[in-house]
User: Fold GTPase HflX from Hyphomicrobium sulfonivorans.
Amino acid sequence: MLVPDLKRSARPLSDAATGAGRTAPLHSPHDRLEEARGLSEAIDLDVRDAMLVPVSSPRPSTLFGSGKVESLGAHIEADEIGLVIIDHPVSPIQQRNLERAWKTKVLDRTGLILEIFGRRARTREGRLQVELAHLSYQKSRLVRTWTHLERQRGGYGFLGGPGEAQIELDRRMIDERIMAIRKELEVVVRTRDLHRQGRRRVPYPVVAIVGYTNAGKSTLFNRITGASVFAKHQLFATLDPTMREVRLQSGRRIILSDTVGFISDLPTMLVAAFRATLEEVIEADLILHVRDISHDETESQAQDVEAVLRDLGIDTLAVDAPIIEVWNKTDLLEQPKREEIESQARWSSERPPVLVSAVTGDGIDALLGAIDARLGSGDAELQLDIPPEGGRLLNWLYEEAEVLARETQDSGGVRVRVRVAAEKKERLLANARRSGVEAVDVRRVSNQV
Assistant:
């Protein structure tokens, strides 16, 4: 496991991604090393050694200098290492030259992430998306050799060898397969769009959970929904999206969507391939950006996620952006650090974050309240005098709205004050008319007074 240290103080981001003059802080070398190790262990690789390699000037032919290539080669040969992972983009020429010099397979960061996605995809859609990204990646690897197209086991061929299922593809065959996959994914996009149209007719707002990989998104999803989505302290534990219905305190029903985790330097072809899935994020009414607030690199991770969201066309810099930051894993904070984080959250005036622990459940009620309030900016507050025989209407109000106050009258009826979602107001008024009950808009009456 090699992590090139290019001696840069910051990673500049494009103006389109960040706005004027913003620069994302570079992840620390130690964090990059630990993340690279975690990526390797995510597909059960036995990491024999992991090291930072200073690189003052990247070489076009081998990335590393000739002396470093030779010394690393001796180490690789002595330890009988069968695979070298370089946590950095490696060009096809560099990959070929290093494999020849070290007499072993070489995999760069993009190839490793694609391998993880290949192992984790469970649905047909997920497999198609990964294969599309894989083929786009492999197409650039056709450099006078077929060794990069050998597949023997698991994933998508990067870690296999010659033997059982060697695949000899040329650019024409790759292009044909890419076209075929894109046609199949067009069907997926149309199907998802039909599902979204169906949800709009209900209509249930969609709340999408996004965040850096291993930030605790699936654990939070399970905590809120009571589902049993696979959640593990592991990079990219979740790949295929999952949706569940959730009922909020106001009676509002939402669709909560758990999505794939983001990561720094996420391969471009993966963002493109998973666009059909990520459209659930694009079309969401509200986005929960989950951050591991206990992580030393939480700010850098947050900016990586925001960069991907901006690539998807979501303006994360707007004050009214449909985003709630969820600062997760507060249970891992020592008391002084927790107090500092809580103070920081209180002084966040533009979009105050919500502090939670998905593991213990601390802060979940506040988060659900924040979601309800954000989606309920257009809610109506109504008062109804319901006669004794209006039990069906009263039951509907408890099921579909939030009952704020209830008062029993001398006649045996009840006066209730309720808050109802804007999309359900007309249904409430229709039900009230059928029961012969007048619904008075409390806010309108207050304004007139």
Notes: The longest helix spans residues 171-201. Confidence is low (pLDDT under 50) at residues 9-25, 143-154, 161-167, 445-449. The first strand starts at residue 2 and ends at 5.
